[in-house]
Predict the 3D structure of the following.
Amino acid sequence: MVRAVITGAASGIGAATARRLAGADGARLMLVDRADEQLRRVAGELGAEALTVDLTMPDAGEQVAAAAGERLGGLDLLVSNAGVAISAPLSELSLEEWDLTYALNVRAAWLLAKAAYPLLREARGSLVVTASIAAREPAAPVGAYASSKAAVVMLVRQLAYEWGPDGIRCNCVSPGTTHTGMTDGTYSDPARRSERASHLPLRRIAEPDEVAAVIAFLASPDASYVTGIDLLVDGGLGTSLLPAIRGLSPP
């Protein structure tokens, strides 16, 4: 039996992860998002608990952990997936936009993990956080997003180091080009989708379930000796950046 909390679960990678984990025997899920109607629709489809909360609020982590203890009876897995990407050059980004990016992408991940720590320690559970390939490479015009995801990767490495003695595994998944609600404006256009895909060794854009499969792996007993890693799910994009810069075709 897996008792799991998934944030950002109303759509995209979060919803795909929920659907994949719901197939496990005896799985008990609590889905978290601020998009109430979408969240309840996904939760209803899967027979999961739904918790509508704004994760940028300082007490949101405590709300989620308390609800997990009450509704699920404990916690084996926390998938911290909620995030935001604001498109603006750093020279034009407002203070409010910067603060929102870090409040959701970094602070919420830390506060969720901190609040869930007693439950994860009791279960010797697992934390998986969604980062991004942007954590490794500059990504215009989402500089705040890129820098926040770099912070998330180090946060998870630090948690893995501190919580390893408690039997808690902490890992990141870093998607590359993936068709989600956040990127639909680009990838729903066939021409733009094809152009982007042409730069990838696999020559295609990922679907959310392909990232969800990696999250499920990291949360599973098959990854029982894996902690502190940032696993790229990018279709080989990370291996083709230098050839692209040099004007060469990826292999």
